[in-house]
Amino acid sequence: xxxxxxxxxxxxxxxxxxxxxxxxxxxxxxxxxxxxxxxxxxxxxxxxxxxxxxxxxxxxxxxxxxxxxxxxxxxxxxxxxxxxxxxxxxxxxxxxxxxxxxxxxxxxxxxxxxxxxxxxxxxxxxxxxxxxxxxxxxxxxxxxxxxxxxxxxxxxxxxxxxxxxxxxxx
Length: 170
Hints:
The chain contains 13 helices and no strands. It has helices spanning 6-16, 34-37, 44-48, 56-59, 66-71, 78-81, 88-93, 100-103, 110-115, 122-125, 132-136, 144-147, 154-159. The two termini are 35 Å apart.
């Protein structure tokens, strides 16, 4: 922790110590970018006091706003919600709305993926550190280039150096 810059340590501490967030009285909320604020995990208190300004698409990926997501299901963007680890309970209640390719990247969704192996997107799963056991059992299905970015898969890359080669076009 001593190698972390002081200003970054303060920012991390502020995120850990939850205090209600609200705008100063002089802030013109008409000039706030509510689209981006809706995904900000530190802005939940502000969003609670301005529910009419919430952007459901961005809210869908906010890890600390599941109670707001539950109140705004009509505004939710289900592909992004499918990747939100904090929203697993909502996905379990709405399996018909799951986007399986996005869910395959969700570290909290391994139990759903194991029950539905035919719906797994192996490209996305290859990036999921929580899916390492599933990946190890299905080496013939994974995307080795994506696996190269998976911090839990270093041992697989070391054992299979020839598999992660290839060109990746942006």
